[in-house]
Design brief:
About 30% of the residues lie in helices and about 25% in strands. The protein has about 575 residues and is of the alpha+beta class.
Length: about 575
């Protein structure tokens, strides 16, 4: 498997380091860069946070054009007569080996950045202003030539580190990232041993990836690599190993994306899956709210995301027996507080129907439901809460809290009854502006998300929604479900939540179809979407007309859902395991 470094960074499980080929901008040259994916620094003007640009050197120390090539575990730079290899034997370490020539690491600097010798030919390079990260470069073979002009306050101009071969034509070094203190005394194995170590780690990861139909093997390999390489270790705000949405522009967790990754990982990586479900609950505030997004340096509270955690737990329990009573006891109190938060703090008109205050709160940031000024009462929010209270009832029952179980069931039934009275107009679901209850009818697929309820919907309503969903020229395309009806005046091929196909609605609606007796339709929908991913790569979303991948690439939300859907297709089809 070869990675396209312009789309999928070269990284590894647990690491905050990533290598990408980046285009030129006003502040950087085009090239191959070592980047970091910590929360962005206040002074960094580049959201991709490049640190070092890599250049391959010939035997005379001159920069030469090269071709980068990456597998999940090895990055190679190749030119006539010169070759460099890099691997990540552990999350904070880059091993470098050059033959026939050298390797240059060049860092653009800003205020207070510095590079100082630390003894034994080591150099400490600190990105003090932009990123607050440090690196220690230690040569193992050959030598390091350093250019770093000191101006009395920091480095003047770029830091240039040239790793140059010795008499045997080989150079090796170790580049280690650290935040506060670098610890000496590390014993470094050979480069080949380091490479084999990370290869074995990746193979163990692949063994936990579910089986998929053979035509999806290549895409599943890429999805497995993306999920593995986008995990970062606990640090700062991140209390558990966390799957970032990408190691590109979206190097954070959003508090519903993580739930889908938890579902996708639950079959083969139980502990990591549970951590994804719980990591946001570790930061729940005293009122019950969850952060909208989080990385190692930031919790964002300006928005939130919809309450899909109950739905996700139900999906996980269907995929693995590894969820124990202890797990349920851990989840029950914060899940109950999160559920109550919606009724206590997102129901301004006190009608029993919670509201969204912004499109971001629904996860459908620019959905046409929010062309009307919020707060907006929407049926998808009620549907999620109906499921969540059903799941809370089940958990309470398993924990022996029978009175609580009965209360959750009763509240779920009451909300479902209120949802149908409030939003079903006899032909379709609508939304309403909170307070005025002004009806909102748009071409958004968001109004079909109540299908997630499956058999909890009255049969006639369910049947009518299934028929409407399949009407030609509206939502069902050759690539999945368009998020805005194709005949809507607001449809845009690259309109984010106003047209493109996204993985999450495909899964939410598809699982509702399966639960409601429409398994064949669900499988056909999954097949359309999985074909699109296999043909167009793992992107944030897809053009509903052409299937072209749009926006962020190497996106774990899509990767995880693709694996979950493809494994569902494999249940009754010829399969091929990813090992």
């Amino acid at each position: 498997m070869r990675l396209d470094l312009s789309a999928v960074p070269f990284s590894r499980y647990g690491s905050y380091l990533a290598f990408s080929t980046l285009p030129a901008t006003g502040s950087r040259q085009a090239g191959l860069y070592l980047r970091h994916v910590h929360g962005p620094g206040d002074l960094n003007p580049d959201p991709l946070q490049p640190v070092f640009r890599l250049d391959l050197l010939d035997g005379e120390g001159r920069s030469v054009p090269f071709t980068p090539e990456a597998t999940p575990t090895l990055l190679s730079l190749q030119a006539a007569g010169s070759r460099a290899e890099l691997c990540l034997p552990d999350p904070g370490t880059v091993r470098l080996r050059c033959t026939g020539g050298g390797l240059r690491l060049q860092m653009a600097t800003g205020p207070y950045d510095y590079a100082v010798p630390r003894g034994g030919d080591r150099w400490h390079i600190c990105r003090a202003g932009a990123d607050a990260v440090s690196f220690m470069l230690t040569p193992l073979r050959g030598q390091v030539a350093v250019h770093a002009e000191w101006n009395g306050l920091g480095v003047e101009g770029p830091v240039i580190l040239d790793l140059l071969p010795g008499p045997d034509g080989t150079a090796e070094a170790v580049l280690e990232e650290f935040i506060t203190v670098w610890r000496p005394g590390h014993i470094h194995p050979t480069f080949d041993a380091a490479r084999r170590q990370v290869e074995m780690e990746f193979e163990r990861w692949r063994a936990g990836i579910p089986a998929v139909p053979p035509e999806y093997t290549a895409a599943a390999e890429e999805a497995a690599c993306i999920l593995w390489s986008c995990v970062v270790a606990p640090l700062g705000h991140l209390t558990r190993p966390a799957v970032l949405m990408s190691k590109g522009r979206m190097s954070a967790i959003w508090s519903w994306d993580n739930c889908f990754n938890a579902v996708a990982l639950s079959a083969g990586h139980h502990a990591l899956a549970w951590d994804q479900l719980m990591v946001m609950f570790d930061h729940q505030d005293a009122h019950g709210q969850l952060p909208d997004l989080m990385n190692d340096r930031l919790d964002l509270w300006s928005f939130n995301k919809p309450p899909v955690q109950g739905w996700a737990l139900r999906q996980m329990m269907a995929r693995t027996p590894a969820i124990t009573p202890d797990h349920l006891a851990e989840l029950y109190p914060p899940l109950a507080r999160w559920t109550e938060w919606w009724f206590r703090h997102r129901d301004d008109d006190q009608d029993g129907i919670p509201q969204y205050n912004h499109g971001n709160d629904s996860g459908w940031d620019n959905s046409t439901l929010f062309l009307t000024r919020p707060p907006i009462e929407a049926p998808d929010l009620c549907a999620y809460l109906v499921i969540q209270m059903d799941v809370l009832a089940e958990i309470a029952g398993r924990l022996g809290q029978m009175d609580a179980a009965r209360q959750w069931h009763a509240r779920s039934d009451t909300l479902l009854e209120g949802m149908l009275a409030h939003f079903w107009d006899g032909r379709r679901f609508i939304a309403r502006q909170s307070g005025t209850h002004r009806p909102i009818q748009t071409g958004s697929l968001q109004l079909y998300l109540p299908l997630v309820l499956g058999t909890r919907l009255p049969r006639e309503i369910y049947r009518r929604m299934v028929v409407d969903l399949q009407k030609p020229g509206r939502f069902l395309t050759h690539h999945g479900l368009a998020t805005e009806s194709l005949d809507s005046p607001h449809f845009r091929p690259d309109g984010y939540w106003r047209g493109p196909v996204w993985a999450a609605p495909v899964m939410l609606i598809g699982e509702g179809l399966r639960a409601g007796g429409q398994a064949r339709l669900a499988r056909n929908l999954y097949r359309l979407f999985c074909d699109t991913v296999a043909q167009n790569g793992i992107a944030e979303n897809y053009n509903a007309h052409t299937g072209e991948g749009l926006r962020e690439r190497g996106f774990t939300w899509t990767a995880g859902i693709f694996l979950a859907l493809a494994s569902t297709l494999a249940e009754q089809e010829p399969i091929q395991k990813l090992i």
